[in-house]
Amino acid sequence: MMHPAHFGLFNPSVAFPGILADQISAHFNPQLAVWSHAPAAVEIERHTIEAVGGLVGWSSGETSGHFTSGGAEANYSAVLMALTKANPAYAEAGAKAFAGTPCIYVSAESHLAWLKIAHQVGIGRSAVRLVPTDGTGRLDASALETLVSEDVSAGNVPVFVGATAGTTNAGMIDPLPECHAICRANNMWFHVDAAWGGAGLLNAEAAQHLSGIENADSITLDAHKWFAVPMGAGILLCRDQSLLAETFRVAASYMPESTDDGVDPYTHSLQWSRRFIGLKLFMSLACMGWDGYRHHIDHALQMAERLKSGLKENGWRLLNDSPLAVLCFIDDEGQAEPVRTAADVVNSGRAWLSSAKFEGQSVLRACITSHFTREEHIDILVDELNRSREVQCR
Questions:
Q1: In the 8-state DSSP scheme, what is residue 116?
Q2: pTM of the full predicted structure?
Q3: Distance (Å, rounded) from C-alpha 115 to C-alpha 312?
Q4: Distances (CA, A) of 315 to 233, 311, 327, 335, 342
Q5: Rounded distance between C-alpha atoms, residue 284 and residue 290, angstroms
Q6: 180-209, pLDDT tens digit by residue?
Q7: Distance (Å, whole) CA 232 – CA 340
Q8: CATH 3.40.640.10 given to domain 16-286
Q9: In this structure, which topology does domain 289-393 adopt according to CATH?
Q10: pLDDT tens digits for 144-158?
Q11: How many CB atoms lie within 10 A of CB 383?
């Protein structure tokens, strides 16, 4: 997956500082459960979290959060916080503390780890409302408003909206300002799952499409996606450290007593024993800075434009209109079947891409995350697509 012609999923070609960071973490093997056992590691992670908060427009004073195993854990933590905020009795009594079913709302095109999360937090998978899209892969805000109104009328309790900033299949960004307004009107938690797309904030044009992310109560990002560090390095950002503490509060006689020196991570996160996850992003930022990452994102978007042009010139039709570096497309004449075409490209050994569904239609999907990708690799992909189509037309 480090190959420059790998155009699948969100696996990046990792940057060298992150590889070294993993080796350092393995060698020293700090345990980040409590501040007193690994003060330098805990403070490095806190500093890095605040830096990422600055990227989304938050000041250091309003940025809390922690590193996670990945986006699913970060999203899970956000739902737990939302339920605790909506009804403080939830922390002790669980879902039965609510007068009706607590409901969470996400796009039908979102990452469906939300169903597993609903099961985990005890509200049940049926509490997840999969909001229809608007025909372009983005959550339909009017449909969201209708679903919330219907749940209120039915005696249910709307709690949480998880807007997606960069859908898995097509890189689409839900209407963040509209989702925020609906949340505020209904006293709901506004979360943005920007696991992949959040890195687009580093590109001036893509950042315009992410406007409104700064209003979120919590945000998910994955450093092991477009920030090019090794698996796994998710991030949960939130504004309210006291709520984080209330959500994950616990005390045990075998743990050292907390001090005023720093926050003990095990009391503010789902995890207990934990690896030094944040060093990968810290060292990458120390070496490359935000300017280096900005160049990385700009390059990926330039390669996406190159691919768009190559596809159009060769009779392939783009179906999604994402400001991020993921393209969904089909053969304009309908002669190349997407699943077979993807298999042909992979079997060539020269490039890798996948098939997917976009607005119910089978499509070819190419995602550009590698800093090694150059124009010649884009041209190889287009050549192999054309070759597969020729074989299917015989």
A1: H
A2: 0.94
A3: 37
A4: 39, 6, 15, 11, 16
A5: 9
A6: 999 999 999 999 999 999 999 999 999 999
A7: 31
A8: yes
A9: Aspartate Aminotransferase, domain 1 (3.90.1150)
A10: 999 999 999 999 999
A11: 16
